Amino acid sequence: MSRRVLIVDDESGIRAALAQLLEYEGYEVRAVASGKAGIAEYTSWRPQLTFLDVKMAGIDGLETLKRLRATDPAAVVVMISGHASIQDAVEATHMGAYDILEKPLDTDRILVTLRNAIGHLDLREENDRLRAKVEKHGEIVGRSAPVRALVDQIARVAGTAARVLITGENGTGKELVARAVHAQSTRVKGPFIEVNCAAIPSELIESELFGHMKGSFTGAIQDRAGKFEQADGGTIFLDEIGDMSLAAQAKVLRVLQDGEVTRIGGQKTRKVDVRVLAATNKRLEEEIPAGRFREDLFYRLNVVPIVVPPLRERRDDLPMLVEHFVQRLSIEGTAPIRSIEAAALDRLSAHDWPGNIRELRNTVERLLILARGPRVTADDVDRLVGGRVGEGQDGLGGLARYKTYEQFKLAAERAFLLVKLRQFDWNVAETARVLDMPRSNLYKKIERHGLAREQG
């Protein structure tokens, strides 16, 4: 479908010449001789682009521009000026003019401006199209079959009192699922208390969950309510529960059985009305026979299991997710506003995304900040992502450049550790466990290879 272009100019020669050029370029053109006629034509025809003369009898170009923008704030208008002052140009720009062309009109300049303006329209319409397609359930973005199934499962379980165990790889969005369950539940007006079990030292986890009394241990300078008490009437989300100590697991089990908590150092039990949601990236069924997780607690928590799909199983959602992060980052002001070319999206879609949604968000932010032009290109992705993850899928940047076997071994070890650390979001303890390596050895290797977590 050809683009519609309106010309508003009181010089018949300008109208004829410009219309001929635009029609030759394949545009549908209408031309009128006054601002009043231009406003009427714009309202009825709705062109995508308008060329508007500044100096005209009756309603001049600036007043016409003002009225057009009042009618349609998204109107793309290029002003044509033969005698306009700098003040007129500044005023037109402030009023929303896309560009200003000076008479006599130069064909090359017209075509460059035209193509830039149409490119601007294409980008805006693509963003609108993606925005219209994006389905947001809280922050769960996507329309792929796995996401639709996930959203349906959340809707079914949210209104019940059932406990939910959310599993999935690091970075898939388990916390977002928990928040969506709470937001759609009858407890939505109550508190949502999150506890990251992996981030709290084992000697402090019981105090964090159940609270303590003044003087019950060194540093307990006052009575303190635990997370279960803080969540009374709402939801508690036990993230990475697979990392909780066995002693704390036993007390959590008792809370689930009795609905009561006892602060450390206290004698009095306190009733709590709390819905428990838990999440882990571990397979608890395998942790149980290894003696690292209580079987009875597992069955208490796993009333309704929800598995969050990794990004590689929902690649159809990637364009929507990228657009979501571009909009979000622009609103937050943490990255410049740029568009993402289709070829760049293709490159991103081909990546394995071991860090899932979290890795994608960080990658989008990196691309927006470091891209070399107004649009993120495939070359930008190759430079900023391809060279960072995989480098030709082997992560080694080409085997021919290694002169000795020892050099290759060191490079291979570095690439392997970097991928694993990213996969587990730089959780050294978890990475070391999965690699069956003492944590101290992993720290030494991180230092030896100069590995560092990327910012963003």
Question: Short description, anyone?
Answer:
The protein is built from 20 helices and 18 strands. 49% of the residues lie in helices and 14% in strands. It has 456 residues and is α/β, with parallel strands linked by helices.
Overview of the structural elements:
The chain has 456 residues and is of the alpha/beta class. It has four domains: 130 residues, Response regulator (Rossmann fold, 3-Layer(aba) Sandwich), CATH 3.40.50.2300; 170 residues, Rossmann fold (3-Layer(aba) Sandwich), CATH 3.40.50.300; 73 residues, Helicase, Ruva Protein, domain 3 (Orthogonal Bundle), CATH 1.10.8.60; 65 residues, Arc Repressor Mutant, subunit A (Orthogonal Bundle), CATH 1.10.10. It is built from 20 helices and 18 strands. The strands form six sheets. The chain has a five-stranded parallel beta sheet with strand order 2-1-3-4-5, with helices on both faces. A five-stranded parallel beta sheet has the order 9-12-15-8-16. The protein has a two-stranded antiparallel ribbon with strand order 6-7. α3 links the parallel β3 and β4. The longest helix has 27 residues. The chain is elongated, with a radius of gyration of 30 Å. It starts with a strand and ends in a 7-residue tail after the last helix.
